[in-house]
HAT C-terminal dimerisation domain-containing protein (Cyprinus carpio carpio), 512 residues
Amino acid sequence: MTMRETPGTSQSSQNKPKQSLIADAFSSVSSYESTSTRHYEITDAITYHIAKDMVPVYTVSKEGFKKMVRTLDKRYKIPSRTHFNQVAIPKLYNECKMRVESELREIDHFATTTDLWSSRTTEPYISLTVHFITTNFELKTRCLQTSFFPGEHTGDNIAEEMRGALADWNLKEDQQVCMTTDNASNMIKALEVNGWTRLQYIGHRLHLAIENAVKGDSRISRATGVCKKLVCHFSHSWKKRVALEQAQKRLNLPVHGLITECQTRWGSRVLMINRILEQQKALREVLSEDRNTRHLILGYQVLDVLESVSKALGPLLEFTDALSGEDYVSVSHNKPVLSLFNTTILAPEEGDTDMTKSLKKKILEYLNSKYEERVTQELLDVASFLDPRYKTQYISVNDVPIIKARLVSEMKMMEHKHSVECRETRVEEVSPPPTKKAKKSLGSFFKRSTASATVPIDPTAAIEAELSAYMQSPTIDNDEDPLLWWRLTHKVNFPRLSNMARKYLCMQATSS
């Protein structure tokens, strides 16, 4: 304080040189060498960002991105766009492919899903995804490839493409449990050509069932047409959207926008209808203010139709979302869901309008007829049986012996195959060098007699005993994870059945 009060002190302190900051010191240092560890780390992180977030490669040449990188580390000099195109991204792809190939070498069985689709520029592609359960009962999904598919989309061409894809990844066709596809005729034909087991998307089948139910009903077509015009009007008018928001606040309604229908997603139609029913008071208030839009006000007849459609289809929305997951077991839900549709969700209720009853009936008839195929039924029964949440609960009494016989047969074949592989890979033991003969212990006299008295276990009896014990074990709660149940202790208690569970529970109920 004394020095501060002394005249001339402030002048001398100003002339005193300031200590440079660490950041400033580093900024004056030369850039990282392209072979340095730090340069590799940052380049790999940028490459991962491009691939994972699907960012265009030319992002690395944009001024904003360069400025951000310079701010984060002034010593790093970002490589050119060509480097990422020709070096960094191919290197990341090869590393990722090697990891996936390593995982695929460890699996015994797998299921696949495939679909044809078009990009935003209408270029045709075909995707192949593999699903499998590890020895530690972890369900994994790997999208193996999305290939440009410009040729004719015939069943023969698709079959050849799928066979080539499995061969490229060294996957054997006899390891494939089934392939889940949509119901397109060329997809069905492709699996027939290859002789592969097919499981139909339950999501796509439900979409077709609903489209079949509403088809031909002029009342529903007219009501949904009015809804589309209504949504289109508000989506093209900023003033109307602002007026709708103000009306929603005045009427204490949720401030929600209207929803547009997507032709390939039946659920979007239900969401559009539900949102319009929710906001009908606000919509009426806004539309009535303008003479040119009063014709869009929904009359009571249209509202009755929309309410009937919503009551019939609304409860099905949640099932579509639940069956579209790929991180958990979904195939074993098919039989329980179909049973629930028949007994509860789509069963006629008191208070249902004639239209609601008709829609429910048509959807049920369509779904039940499409799942009568014997191969599909047996595949779904096996999956349901191996799920400790359901077991035989949703399987017909007459079909239980068939499922048990199938599992016993497959477990015998698997055990025989395993024993043959063990004999083929057995290496002749090298006898140790002779050592000084040790004095025999008392227990050694009983070894030979005990070994000779051991009775070999009949494989069939052991398998049937394991199957019987599994059926007698209690089922678990529907919210529990069946893979966790198998993983903890039951893969030890039921070693053969656990392999069957890994084989069949990897199948996908649908694909999105």
About this structure: The chain has four domains: 21-96, 106-200, 203-365, 373-421+465-512.
